[in-house]
Design goal:
The structure is a single chain. With 73 residues, the protein is mainly alpha-helical. It has five helices and no strands. The chain is 67% helix and 0% strand.
């Protein structure tokens, strides 16, 4: 799988779990969790993300890394 497709899948998963957590708007989620709103929007769109930032976001969403990466190949 190429990097661009992988990052798009990460973004789609972030959006899915954000909505599942009850946040219809990514900006509200980012604001509540002290994450840059413009940058978080880029992550959902498939921008490159640092592992420690992804971990912080998953923790805020109450999603384990194992659960998050399930199905991404």
């Amino acid at each position: 799988m190429d990097e661009e497709i992988f990052l798009k899948k990460i973004g789609e998963k972030l959006k899915f779990y954000r909505k599942k957590a009850g946040y219809s708007n990514y900006e509200y989620f980012a604001y509540e969790n002290n994450i840059s709103r413009p940058q978080y929007g880029k992550y959902e769109a498939g921008a490159n993300i640092q592992l420690n930032t992804l971990y912080k976001i998953l923790k805020a969403l109450k999603v384990t890394p194992e659960e998050f990466f399930k199905g991404i190949e």
